[in-house]
Design a protein that fits this description.
Elements: E1 12-14, E2 20-29, E3 33-50, E4 55-62, E5 64-67, E6 74-76, E7 81-84, E8 89-93, E9 98-105
Antiparallel strand pairs: 1-2, 2-3, 3-8, 3-9, 4-7, 4-9, 5-6, 5-8
Length: 121
């Protein structure tokens, strides 16, 4: 077993698409997907841009105001996630700050009550 300290992952600032207070740190990579941690400082924004692949943003701490191609923002907090489909325009903002886990790529995602892994039944 290994324990990963997500706060210790090397982060780089990102300013693309008008992003502010946004940094990203890679913690995993496969041929089909990548796994990163995202940090937004209070008042930060990940500017509107198209998802490169299916993207799952899981809020670990803080608050996120997320929107997809429809543009209507939804507030989510710890234990909640947003999913964007490939090429979907999306944006993430925060009031108090945000730490999130992002998985992007060829990933099958279930919905509540949907069995993804047959071993789960």
């Amino acid at each position: 077993m290994r324990i990963l300290d997500l706060a210790a992952a090397s982060h780089r600032p990102v300013e693309a698409h008008g992003s502010v207070g946004f940094s990203i740190g890679a913690i995993g990579l496969t041929a089909e997907a990548h796994l990163v941690t995202v940090t937004l400082r209070p008042g930060g924004v990940v500017g509107r841009h198209p998802a490169a692949g299916r993207q799952l943003l899981v809020v670990l701490s803080g608050d996120a105001l997320v929107s997809g191609s429809h543009g209507e923002p939804v507030v989510i907090g710890p234990g909640r996630a947003a999913v964007w489909e490939p090429n979907e325009l999306h944006e993430t903002r925060t009031t108090s700050g945000l730490v999130a886990l992002v998985i992007e790529g060829d990933v099958d995602l279930g919905t509540p009550g949907h069995v993804v892994d047959p071993g789960d039944v």
